[in-house]
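Q: I'm writing up a methods section and want to include an example of the input and output format. Could you take the sequence below and give the corresponding predicted structure tokens, formatted cleanly so I can copy it straight into the document?
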Amino acid sequence: MRVHVVSDVHGRADALARAGDGADALICLGDLVLFIDYADHSQGIFPELFGADNAARYVGLRTAGRFEEARVMSAGLWATLDGEPRDHIERMVDKQYAELFAAMPTPAYMTYGNVDVPRFWAGHARDGHHILDGERVEIGGLTFGFVGGGLRTRYRTPYEIDDEEYAAKVAAVGQVDVLCAHIPPAVPELLYDVVARRFERGSEATLQAIKETQPKYALFGHVHQPLAARTRIGRTECVNVGHFRARRTPYALEW
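A: Here is the clean output for your methods example:
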């Protein structure tokens, strides 16, 4: 069996369409939506609505840790549009999902990232798309468990949940051969982004589950430029499958 794994697609529908080439199945670990590209300020929902210059200012404030100023700036821009900001965002999120799910190969097994909006997914999924969160499935004789979303942060991304809710999903997955999540286990070298120069949040519940159940693999994304892309926890190989928007190449798992 050969399975390709992607995470942090962030609007890259063209590369996603080819991500399953040569594989028996595709696994997607979320973050399909692109709100703003920190490397190219002309790409994403925010610059489409407000222009690349405003996007560059917004990114600059957030990168500097000036989150309240960024929120004030953003609120001022949203106030210039007719209607509620939520309506504009949801319209553009829905448009991105239509393109992304049309490009998504089959069969595909997927879970949500922290910037995703789960309630839109079912309306765009096609035959052969399996959406899993706190659930497990057998692929080629191995049991895969899926835990979607992210934990609460100051960034306030759309699908952040409380630690207790996240831990309950990890517990529901139970013993598996491959544990798939969007965010990493709480291991410092897996959480530090060397370009953003900050630690992202990881899951203590996932780390504990790995220690106790020792799956063959733990696969995740979320941290785009990690200090360490992989490490071992006992018998478990922990792997960041890569920032797909930038790399455009899936991680291959064979057995």
